[in-house]
Amino acid sequence: MAVDNLIAILGLQNLMALSAVVIIGLPHGAFDGAIASHLGFMKRPYFLTRFLFLYVLIAVSVVVLWLAFPVESLILFLLISVLHFGFGDARAICGWFRWVQVVAHGAVVVVGISQFHKLEVDKIFNYLTGQESTVVWIAIDVASMVFVPVFMIYAWQAFLDQRWRPAFIELNLLLLVFVFFQPLVGFALYFCCIHSMRHFLVLWRSLQTALRRNDFYFQAIAFTFASWILGGVAYWWCIDQMSGETALLRVIFIGLAALTVPHMILVDGFFRRRLEGV
Hints:
By secondary structure, the protein is mainly α.
């Protein structure tokens, strides 16, 4: 009956999209242990313990801050999502145009989904914060005003230099996806098919020797199942205090935020810089 109620309220497509985010998208961060090992963070038991402690501490801190300051936390989550998605999709290695790509590719997800489906996204924001979302929309409008000129600069550079045309075409195809698909479906398509797959490919090219070790696969599987179990426990705890759809959306997206922050620090703050020789 609970599933039937969720389908009736959220719709089957949205429920399938959320399932894809959890089942396909979430495990893309499960190889953070392999990245940490590659960076030398797990050479000794002390380093391993310190890494796990800091990772969990950051994730728990995000959840606590979200519960205490939901609107501010949502805005911050959207901002770090822009940066994380942008760093993952940018193709320029350095220079001012790299930042053009980071902003364009990162902001297209947040700005595109939000501005093309304001009513639906506003409902999601209300589910996630339990509060009025005016301040969130102000932040998104500011991001939109930044995105438009950045998009135009990107278009001009793609016109002048064919190296940037494939990525610019990808950007425009994403815009079309966000126009024609419901917000959660559009996000799931991007998160699972582009962001997560691109992350896996980068890991495979960079860490082939490490990833041949079975212990990293067991570690990734264990991390994934632990996340699912914790999410299930959180949903079971929340369901007594709020509606099923609110509990589901909060557990998934607050959980994503909690895992994204330490994942972003590791990937964008250390691993990507090592790859790019920064």
